[in-house]
Design brief:
Helix content: 10-25%
Structural class: alpha+beta
Order of helices and strands: EEH
Strand content: 15-25%
Radius of gyration: 14 Å
Number of strands: 2
Shape: globular
Amino acid sequence: MRRPVCRLCGSHDVYTLKFADYAPLDGGRKGHPRGLEYFCGRHGARDLTHLPLGEALTELRDKPQRIATPSSRI
């Protein structure tokens, strides 16, 4: 498995998502399963899990990132 960092921004505050092309590794094989990826909550990747991972990444990279910014106080 790869280190748990967001595929898009490198954040360490991530969750694991299984996409439409998810395929677990057979038996004791080592590596990172196809269709499994780490994302933080800022990109809206959960809305795209019905797609294969490659298509979801294209969608996420083509649209502006949904990054939450703290409200500023004056």
